[in-house]
Amino acid sequence: MDAFAHSIKRSSPPCVRLLLLLLIAIEALIFSQCLRTSLGWINEPFPGFLVLKNRVVAAAGCPFWKELRREEIFHAQVQEINGEQVRDARDVHAFFRSEKEVAGAPIWYRVETILGGGELFPGDRIDQPHLSDEPPDQGKVVFITFAGYAPQKVQDMVVVPTSHGPIGVAFPRMVVTPPRCSRGRLNLFGGDHYFESDLELVEDINRIAVKNLEDRKGRILAKAIARAVAKQVAIHHIARSSDSRNDQRTIEAILNLVNILLVERADTRSWRTLPGRIYMTRMHVPAGKYTVELQACGGTWADFGPLLVEPGTTRYLFRDLRYPVSGNSETLPQ
């Protein structure tokens, strides 16, 4: 390591050494921040699930976290804890840290799920399953649809002209294509009954993808700088194989140009098969036979045909608005 550092100090240009020291300082700062945050959770009360800044419960956890035994808590937004309003994730953590002396006492949450609001108790304090309050002669129809395509990653590049040739740094950028159909309504016709319900946005994958890239922008920039520094060190050492100063600059300029045209590339991998947005709606309807119709894109988009809703069952309907396929969709009872 000492020999490597001495080699860089002796043979590398001052700008390369400065970039290398800056990169080391950034990595040390990130490491120290992660270490400080991790040490802060030792011997501290934990709610039993991961909650994001917007109070949404993340769909991640360990199998022994009992609070996650109920799947409906995933992607739910915490509204209250024991009757106290929650404004952000800090309120959730502050509540548990203030309740050390009553560890193990009953705690209940009021959450808002993608299917509506309700009350949810931690898993290790549930004595019986949650019972629905819908009448026994009714059933439920749940409709899910995909709209638009997930955003695409494209490459941007910053080129800095120097006396050693152009130095390029590539980084990704998200391009979002708005969905062609973003609103809709589900209609159910059955005898004397008529029901309608507007589609609600339950997951905006476009926004999630853009936010995820924004959150990783610092790490991406650090890696891009490290990549550029490593390449400049290698190019400089290759150029020093020539004794002529003019030849050295020519070699550096050619290698830097080749790097920009052929080598330097950003990570543009992305899930192009995912939809841009996911819409959903549900209706509690009397048991019976219905005709289902979807209104979207400014008109009647799809006719699902007859649908039999039996008492106490749930019928799931699905349609992907990206692929205009006519005909009945498969329905699954539950």
Describe the structure.
- By secondary structure, the protein is an alpha+beta fold.
- The protein has two domains: 38 residues, no CATH class; 201 residues, no CATH class.
- It is built from six helices and 14 strands.
- The protein has a four-stranded antiparallel β-sheet, covered by helices on one side.
- Strand 3 and strand 4 form a beta hairpin.
- Helix 2 runs antiparallel to helix 5 and helix 5 runs antiparallel to helix 6.
- The longest helix has 26 residues.
- The radius of gyration is 29 Å and the shape is elongated.
- It starts with a helix and ends in a 14-residue tail after the last strand.
Largest sheet: 4 strands, antiparallel
Secondary structure: helix percent: 25-40%
Shape: elongated
What do the pLDDT scores average to? 76
| Global Rg | 29 Å
Helix and strand run: HHEEHEEEEEEEEHHHEEEE
| Strand line-up across the major sheet | 2-1-3-4
How many helices? The count is: 6
- Flag low-confidence runs: 1-11, 119-133, 327-334
Give a quick precis of the structure:
The chain is an alpha+beta fold and 334 residues long. It has helices spanning 2-11, 14-39, 89-97, 205-215, 217-239, 245-263, and strands at residues 77-81, 84-85, 109-113, 116-120, 138-149, 152-160, 167-175, 184-190, 193-198, 200-204, 275-286, 288-296, 299-309, 314-320. It folds into 2 domains: 2-39, no CATH class; 134-334, no CATH class.
